[in-house]
Amino acid sequence: MILFRYIVREILVATLAVAFTLLVIVISSRLVAYLSLAAAGNLSPGILASVIAYRIPGFLELILPLAFFVATLLALGRLYVDSEMTVMTACGISPRRVLLMTLVPALLVALIVAAISLYVSPYTKTRVSTLLASADSATGLDLLVAGRFRFIKEGAGRVTYVEQKQGDELLGVFVTDNPRRGFAESRQVVVLAERGRTEIDPETGDQFLVLENGTRYLGQPGALDFQVMDFQRMRQWLQPRDTTVVPRKRDTQPTAALLGSPDPVNIATLQWRVSLALLVLVSTVSAVALARTDHRRGRYGKLLPAFIVFLVYFLALNAARDAVGKERIDAVIGMWWVHGVFLLLGVALLFGGQWLRAWRVRRRGHAG
């Protein structure tokens, strides 16, 4: 029992460390991408934190299987390098028993991954799609960044600039509607105002830009017949941007909606969610086998071949998912054959040498 707790603690602590490191790397890369969109005015800064938070479960369902695989390699590899595994073997701890002890934390991680992939991740992905869709359909004023020009109505060439933003109030507003290409006689409208704000009509629900204490210029560039009008208050109707309807991705559908569905894509999606949990258990067998090392090679000696095995496993699952969705593979066979192949590979790596030596001994015994 003491040995069991020792191995489980080593693996779980390493899993938390690896998962946290990978999660920080992934979140940082996604945050940089979202910040670039926000800086360009294509994403509201107000939803950045929500989008990142809702994306974390989707990251974890992919990170945890890899993190546990690497943690098992590192934890057991250290036991081999420090000769602790040699002592365990001398005390009668067989590779089979080490595998059984390792499968206990693997089962725990697999259950966590299953809960995330089957229930949590579909909900959070739906929330992300909803947030991005609502931001896509906004008028664009909520995406304004002080000190930056922004196209509010790109089809008509409307450009808006504000010097400062104080909550919902805009200070130092500049708005221009450039003439459309191909219309030589069209005139340009330029509006300058001290302040502005958005206002929603309670009857129609239309949104207006209300400008105060400004000047409106109307005319054709290069001509002398400009019209100049000073105003104290002016309202401009804000036409919503063309809503980009975010399609309901298969990954956002609740697991209950996928059960019993005859659609091959739904079947592939359901099998993928289950496969992420199975990935933890099956890859553990290979990890226990590949963790064997010695002082000369060190605990990191087999990391590269182990990564290759895991990567091939993961890519094979992706390929099988695509094949099931396109009905190239029967749904009954589905993605299960990939798990079967890599389970046999792991068993062969772990027990193959032992079985081969036993076969040779029996063969020599029969020959003698």
Describe the structure.
- This protein has eight helices and six strands.
- With 368 residues, the chain is α+β, with helices and mostly antiparallel strands.
- Helix 1 (2-39) runs parallel beside helix 4 and helix 6 (264-290) runs parallel beside helix 8 (336-367).
- The protein is elongated.
- Strands 1-2-3-4-5-6 form a six-stranded antiparallel beta sheet, with no helix packed on it.
- Residues 241-248 have low confidence and may be disordered.
- It has helices at residues 2-39, 48-81, 84-90, 95-136, 255-258, 264-290, 303-325, 336-367, and strands at 150-153, 158-166, 169-177, 188-200, 207-219, 227-238.
Q: What structural class is derived from the secondary structure elements?
A: alpha+beta
Roughly what percent helix?
55-70%
Rounded mean pLDDT is: 82
Strand count, sense and closure of the main sheet?
Answer: 6 strands, antiparallel
Distance between the ends: 43 Å
Poorly predicted regions = 241-248
Helix count, per DSSP?
8
Oligomer state equals single chain
So what's the overall shape? elongated
SS strand fraction: 15-25%
Strand line-up in the sheet with most strands: 1-2-3-4-5-6
Helix and strand run: HHHHEEEEEEHHHH
Radius of gyration: 31 Å
**Would you count the extended β strands for me?**
6
